Amino acid sequence: MKEFLKRFGIIFIFFGVLVLSYTKIFKLESNQLLLISGGLIMGGFIIYVIINNIID
Description:
It contains three helices and no strands. By secondary structure, the chain is mainly alpha-helical. It has one domain (2-55). The radius of gyration is 13 Å and the shape is elongated. The two termini are 14 Å apart.
């Protein structure tokens, strides 16, 4: 369970990159999708740093 929690933030970052690549590949100009992907990437990074500091 600890290993899953340590990698939990990376899952958010991965989904953020997927949303960002989706908008780039299909040439969508939606700021909502860019905001969602940015939020997922930044949120995943923050979650990753905080959880790893708590567990270690």
